[in-house]
Amino acid sequence: MADKGKEHLSLVVCGHVDAGKSTTTGHLIFKLGGIGEREMAKLQAEADAKGKSSFAFAYYMDTCKEERERGVTIQCNTKEFFTENYHYTIVDAPGHKDYIKNMITGSGCADAGLILVPAEKGGFEAAIAKADPKMGVDEGQTRQHARLLFLLGIEQIIVGVNKMDSCDWSEARYNEIKDEFIKMVTQIGFKPKKVPVIPYSGFNGDNLVTKSDKAPWYKGWKANLNKDTVIEGWTILDAL
Length: 240
Fold this sequence. Notes:
Blueprint lengths: L6 E8 L6 H11 L5 H13 L6 H6 L3 H6 L6 E6 L3 E7 L7 H8 L4 E7 L4 H5 L13 H11 L4 E7 L8 H18 L8 E3 L21 E6 L2 E5 L7
């Protein structure tokens, strides 16, 4: 698939801290052949040695010592990968509120955004929370990131509902998240019919590159790009 002659697009991956951005990005690139088996084994060995075995895919993106020690993305890290039709530069943006300036810098030249939200109970709610200083509630970084992408002129977003295994692939939980998220981004200014919302697991790989059988209720996604163009798919990769 590696062909420098393909159309180039820049994709920023953003969302609340611990939404699984680096793991998703690393696993996607591995599935597409961008990480060799030997390199992956080395990353897994380092993650195991640090007592963070589930961070192996994330280590491909989080390359500096502090990021690996803390398990948090600090700077915007970029990698390239190729799909059947496109040459992508993917930007893994930090989700922690302390590094919002880095997120803005990484999003400035993006053509599209992949916004990840966790399906975990409490995790999604924190990610889209409205700021309430009186109650000591900070604005969720996913809410802030979505607004910033819109202000930066990014019109096309893809939504990944990650960690679906944490709720046993519950259809009710997916629908709850989808409805709340679409309501939020519509208020921001995005066109809801253009936004695919995809249930998946970045760590296990379900619905990342290939269709999973763990959600028989899921019938795939559809996006109306304009009045004449409707696209359909199943996975995160299909939406790229």
